Amino acid sequence: MMPAGGRSTPKSIQERWAADPAAFAREAFLPDDQGRPLTLAKWAIPFVEGVRDNPYNGVKANRNASKTFTMAFLALWWGFTRWPAKVLFAATRADQLRDHNWGEFRLLHARLIPELRKDVQILASEIRISADKAGEPSRQPNMIIARAASEGNSVASQGAHAAHMLVILDEAAGIPDSIFNVMYGSLTTPGSRIVVAGNPTITSGAFYRIFTHPEMSKLWKTTTVSAFDVQDEPWFRKAWIDECRKNWGEDSPDWQSYVLGEFPTTQEGCIFPVDLVSDAVARVVELKPGYLPIWGFDPAAGGDRCALAKRHGNILLGPVETWISDDTQISVNRVVDAYYASRDAGSAPAAICVDASGLGIPMAQQLRDLGLPIVSVPFSEKANRDEMYVNKRAEMHFSAADWFRQRDCSIPYDEQLIEEMLTVRKINSDQGNRMRLLAEPKDEIKKRILRSPDRLDAFNLTFCARYRERDSGYLDAKMAVVRQKRRERADSGTWMSAI
Q1: In 3-state terms, what secondary structure has residue 233?
Q2: Is residue 43 pLDDT above 90, yes or no?
């Protein structure tokens, strides 16, 4: 691995390049036809230096930020400067790897100095970097291995280990959580690193949490690249920024993701407003007077979680409680114990709304027989506002979303509840001459987050007893107004007052 001129021994060059990726870019690649050295984005070398020093690294970037090219450079730098080394290069689709990622490797391979180029063999799904050098013992080649990181293919990444292991997840916003979990299992050696890269388009999943979760942000070294960071690069057309501003507007999700390199504060088609949910997590509020606690209980079996949410007016009282049990009696006992504990503490709910479908029907009745204030809510039945919503489940979702729009509510940081909120999407249902709203089916949500949105269902159920949550003073005042209006009609002397 000797650059032109042979100024150093191979080992000293390797060590120097390992410590200085900018030197690798200058010395390991030939100038182009116009005599220009290899050009990397201004953010690229600091990012690669971050990978050198930190086990966990993430970059979210605008469109055409040279992200894929930088990931290919990073993989080659790793493969040439560490022995033994392995790079697991994953993307969501095989065609992405074949047409884009491997295409960048071929461009870089053509620019390598001859002393290095002859040691690289690019195959359909792997790249081999030879380690046979004069004066060095024969070793197995370093490998860059392509893997399609899709759901159901997580086994393809298992068993990938090396003393110097680098995992690169490109287009990481679309990679399922199960793949991330498998990749974490590959980082068992001190010299291992993981890199995630993508456009910040989806406000749920592991890629989103890396940049937004308070604890994960302590572990990960993250980089954000916007179009304004690369607008002066030779490959970038600066006028594109103004075109996007005119076509999308600066408040659009596309502008935020593809121009600013930020996760959108409004998600196209989502029921829950992203920015308002985020604000509610950080907000400290006083409890609004005149409200009583309402609980929501979503029963489950067969591996799904039972969930119990507790809301008091404008405050969700804590993270949604969940547990797994196929024994319905255990779940009933747990709700009963929680209710009587709250009653002893003077904070008993005015109602416990239960999903009255399937096994929820007998469980709701059993809880009612035990003296709990149960309200049965059949998700699939007709909505109260039938002119707007297809069924009760859709009405619950939109009622819960409206709660955030009051801008005076507060929820704790409940990672999975927030993810479930921000992933569920609305569907416009055209039935006859009526356009009504529908929440997407649970099965579609499960495909994205790999679990049932039980926490969200429990939270939504707390909005199904709106009159019960107002205290007696509020109800007395409302009834006084109603009685006064009746007296006024009776005193008016019209023919209707005699009815």
Answers
A1: coil
A2: yes
- Give the E-state strand segments of 116-163 in sequence order: 120-122, 126-129, 142-148
Domain co-membership, 344 together with 217: no
Q: What is the helix (H) or strand (E) element at residue 474, kind and residue range?
A: helix 472-491
Query: How many beta carbons lie within 10 A of that of residue 480, not counting itself?
Result: 10
Tell me what the pLDDT averaged over the chain comes to.
Answer: 86
Q: Give how many domains the chain has, as a whole number.
A: 2
- Rounded Cα distance between 310 and 297, Å, is 9
List, for residues 407-431, the tens digit of each pLDDT value.
999 998 887 898 889 888 888 776 6
The full DSSP string for 353-412 is EEE-STTHHHHHHHHHHTT--EEEE-TTS--TTTTTBSSHHHHHHHHHHHHHHTS--B--
Whether residue 84 is preceded by a cis peptide bond, meaning omega within 30 degrees of 0, is: yes
| 312 and 247 together in one domain | no
Question: What single-letter DSSP state applies at residue 314?
Answer: T
Beta bridge partners of 428: 437
H helix and E strand count, the chain: 21, 16
* Model confidence pTM above 0.70: no
